[in-house]
Write a structure and sequence with these properties.
about 200 residues, mainly alpha, two-stranded antiparallel sheet, about 45% helix
């Protein structure tokens, strides 16, 4: 939790900043989940974060998986192959998928130690889905176009590029990029998103 929204990016912004009569209303700015369209993404983000926070609270995390100096998260997030290596503080080199697999292994051990055979169905499902996603990311990220937003969006953009011979900086791709996250019902959107419903990237 924190008061910042741009520099430190807390999961929950606790700034008391009502945008209406402060005698009647309060405002809690929750900034988790607003970047995802996929229900699977949101489910895993909330589920895995909950597990990691529980391990931190119970002082279960003994492994130091922090990144070393000079490692940039943006370089990892801009690698659609999921093969770029990052250097940890202890000198080990691994991909982001391998790093998450370490956290998954710790989360499985944590739940087994804490709950034994009484792990609830949702926690068990989060662990299994997490493992499934990591295995497919390691094999071929494009296998996850129905589950992960960045893969679905990349597949959509690559489809337009291939069909129309567009460069990455073409305005039509920028429009698709923006409209991917449009949550308005079909008909409410002036451009008629999605494609097939009268939508034109030329507008």
């Amino acid at each position: 939790m924190g008061l910042e929204t741009t520099l430190k990016r807390p999961i929950i912004n606790t700034r008391d900043e009502p945008h209406a009569d402060p005698e009647k209303y309060r405002r809690l700015h929750v900034i988790i989940g607003d970047a995802n369209m996929s229900e699977v993404c949101t489910y895993l983000k909330v589920g895995t974060t909950s597990l990691i926070l529980a391990m931190i609270e119970d002082k279960f995390l003994g492994t130091d998986c922090r990144r070393g100096a000079g490692g940039r998260a943006r370089a990892i997030s801009h690698d659609p192959t999921c093969r770029r290596l990052l250097t940890l503080k202890d000198g080990r080199k691994m991909t982001a998928v391998q790093l998450q697999a370490e956290y998954l292994e710790l989360a499985r051990k944590y739940t087994e130690d804490k709950y034994g055979n009484d792990v609830d169905d949702i926690t068990s499902d989060v662990l299994n889905r997490w493992e499934s996603v990591l295995n497919r990311l390691a094999e071929d990220p494009m296998l996850l176009s129905k589950e992960l937003d960045w893969v679905a969006k990349l597949e959509l953009l690559e489809g337009y590029r291939s069909r129309d011979g567009l460069a990455w900086d073409h305005p039509r791709l920028q429009l698709v990029d923006l409209q991917y996250s449009d949550v308005r019902p079909i008909g409410a959107c002036t451009t008629g998103w999605p494609p097939g419903a009268g939508w034109s990237a030329d507008r």
